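idk why but the lab printer keeps eating my pages so im just putting this in chat instead. protein + EPZ:
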Amino acid sequence: MPPATPAPQTDATPAAEILMIEGGQPLHGEITIGGAKNSVLKLMAAALLVDAPVTLKNVPNISDVWVMAEVIRHLGVDVTNPADNQMRIDAHNVTETSATNEYVTQMRASFNVLAPLLARYGKAQVSLPGGCSIGKRGVDLHIKGLEALGATVDVTHGVVTASADKLIGADIVFDVPSVGATENVMVAAVTAEGKTTISNAAQEPEITDLANFLNAMGADIHGAGTHEITIFGVPRTQLTGLSYEVVPDRIEAATYVIAAVATGGDVTINRVRPQHFQAVLSKLVEMGANITTPTPTSIRIQPAKTTLTAQNITTLPYPGIPTDLQAPLMALLCTATGSSMVKETIYENRFNHVGHLRRMGASIEQDGNTAVVTGIERLSGATVSATDLRAAAALVIAGLAADGATFIRQLHHMDRGYDGLEAKLRSLGANIHRLREDALPKGVTL
Ligand code: EPZ
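predcted complex ->
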C-alpha cells in the first residue's frame, strides 16, 4: 500500500512519467483482478455510519483510494492498512462533519460522505464535485433524494450543506438511474425512520456490493441490483462493525479482456464475475472474439478464428454496455473490419480519446455523442496523452496492438483506477515500461 499520506505537491515534484509501449506482442498468461474502484470508494464513505471498526479486503492500490482515505482522515476517522490490499476504518471519533478540503474537490466520489455524516450527525457539508473532462456531472438527484428524506439542503459558493433533525423514509423516483445518487440515498435511508423506496435506481453491481456491505453492518435493504430498492430504517444502535471483501472490478477485468482480444493473445483472467459484464462479453463474441469461462470466476481469451468485425456500441446504464468501457472498446474497433457506430448516452463529452486514437492512425468521425469508427489494418505507435481514466486505458490497448512504439503522457489519470497496470501487462508478455520524461532512453524523443 502507498504512503499513508500522499506527499504534498512541491517544486521538488518528480518529473512527469510516461508509459512506453512497444506494440505487437500477443498477450499470454494469467492475471488476477483486484477490488472494484467504484465500490470500495463508497464502502469507505459508508463506514462513517458506524462507530466501530470496519475492515475492507481486496482493496485496490490506486490513487482514488488514497485520496478517499485522506478525505475521511480529515473528518477524524482512523484509516490504516493492516495488510496488503486491506484497510481498517475506525470512525468512532469523527471530529468534523465538513468535507471541503483539496482532496474532496479532486474526486467526485468524495460526495458520498454527505449521506453518512447527515444520517449520523444530522448535518454535513461537502464541496460540490467539480465537473470533469467527460461532462458536467450534476448532483441534483443526490440533493432531491436527501430532501425527500427530510433534509434541508443548501448549495452556496460551491459547497453543499445538508441538515436534518431526523430523516424519514420516503418514496423516491430518479429521472435517470444515477449510481452515486442511488448510493447516497441508500446510505441515508439505512437509519431513517420507516420505509424508503428508490424507483429507477441504478442497478450496477457496485450498488449490490454496497447494499450487501450495509446489510452485513445491520441494515435492512432489499432489491439492490434491480430498478426498485426498498430500505427499512433500523436504529443506529443495530449497526455494527464488520469485515467485508470488495467485489472484483468488472471494468478493470473487461479492460484486460479487450487488451487480450486486441493483441490476439491467449490470456486467463482470474477472480472475476463474468456475469457483471455480460453485455461486453457478448459484444466481443459478436465481433468474433474467442472467449470462454473455464470456471464461474475466470475468463479465457484465445486467438480469434477469424478477423474481428465491426459492431455498433451504445452505452447504457447497467446491464447495458457501460460507459466506462466505451473508450477501451473503441480502441479495439479501430482495427475491426468495417464501420462501427459508437454512441455515448451517459456523458456529454466522453470522446476525448478520439483525437489521440487518430494520432495513431485511427479513422474516426465524431458527430456530437456519436462516433463512426472505420477499421484500418493496424494502428501505428505515436506520442499521445490520457485525458481521463478510461481514455488512458484505451490508449494502452491501442499501443499494445499498434505497430511500433507508443508513448502515453498524463499517467495520473490511469493511476486513479488501475492497480499495477504495467506490471500486470508485463507479466502477460507486453513490452511496456514506465519512464521519467526527463530520462528517456537514448534516441527516444516524444
Ligand atoms: C459512477 O459515477 C462511476 N464512478 C463512473 O465511473 C461511471 O461512469 C458512472 O457511475 C456511470 O456508471 C464511481 O462510482 C466513483 P451517475 P456517478 O451518477 O455516480 C448525471 C470511472 O471511469 N447525473 O450514474 O457520478 C451525470 O452527470 C467513472 O470509473 C446528474 O445529472 O455516475 C452523468 O451524466 C467515470 N445528476 C449521469 O447522470 C445527478 O445528481 C450518470 O451519472 C447525478 C448524475
